[in-house]
Amino acid sequence: MSLPKLPNTTYYVCKRAGMALHEHAMLGSSQRVVVALSGGYASRCLLVALTYRRMKTPVKPDFVPVFVADDVHGDPDAVARDLTAFCGRLDMELTVVRAAAGAGAPPNPPKSEAPSAAASDSRARHWDPVPHREALSAAAAAAGAGVVALGHTIFDRACFLFAGMILRGTLARLDPVEPATAVRFVRPFCGLTHHALLKMARDEGIAVVPAVVEHPDAELHRMMDEFVRSKKGNLLEKLKNVSNAGHHVNKGYLA
């Protein structure tokens, strides 16, 4: 199948994702790749972009879309039906799995007063570097895949760094490739902003489904967005500097 003429933003997203895949050797020699779908626009754009990239490159791995059923984007059964139809348009079959029991326990609770159990679970779900890690790892093993692709953007990476500093007093980063894991978790959108993905979603007719579960640190999220935008310079370069800041920030500043 030949690659169709792509809208400008879709072409840009595919190119940037391809550069990340190549620069960080994300797929390696894997012949099967699990693509984690949450129901949101970023993960849908990821599956579309990887599909377009496969048409152009000589290496053509099989993509296995997987949805770990949760209520972030609404009723899990309704989201699963919607994603099944979405994957069907790409000639793919969606795999739906259930979250592992106990998933979401916060590995590093905030240093301030102890939050309620429900708040801790909700916060951990949003700030876990690999949401539903156990369920995705099991799905990858069942599919014979050695790689799981996640839809995190460079803004997600910047927010994750800030959140660790503010909430836990630690430095943690969302790397393009998750280090030292049996299953290789990769982030092909590590150099892309969510604004580019929103434009791609619009051009590709991908539904932008808002999260039903409010982010437990939504106000902090907005503050980080305003902070980054207040700095002079190109937005992408600013986000890149922030998301890689774990290499440079002195831990003494966190005291």
Annotation, overall tally of beta strands:
5
Q: Return the string of H and E elements.
A: HEHEHEHHEHEHHH
Low-confidence stretches: 102-120, 247-255
CATH level-3 fold name: Rossmann fold
Distance between the termini: 56 Å
Radius of gyration using CA atoms only: 18 Å
Structural class of the secondary elements? alpha/beta
Largest sheet: 5 strands, parallel
CATH class: Alpha Beta
The CATH H-level superfamily is HUPs
Lateral arrangement of strands in the main beta sheet: 3-2-1-4-5
* Helix content percent band: 40-55%
Q: So, CATH architecture? A: 3-Layer(aba) Sandwich
Q: Strand percentage, roughly?
A: 5-15%
Number of folding domains? Answer: 1
Number of contiguous helices = 9
Mean pLDDT across the residues is 79
In short:
By secondary structure, the chain is of the alpha/beta class.
Descriptive overview:
The chain is α/β, with parallel strands linked by helices and 255 residues long. It has a single domain (8-254), classed as HUPs (Rossmann fold, 3-Layer(aba) Sandwich), CATH 3.40.50. Helix content is 45%, strand content 9%. A five-stranded parallel sheet has the order 3-2-1-4-5, with helices on both faces. The longest helix has 16 residues, at 8-23. The model is unreliable at 102-120 and 247-255 (pLDDT under 50).
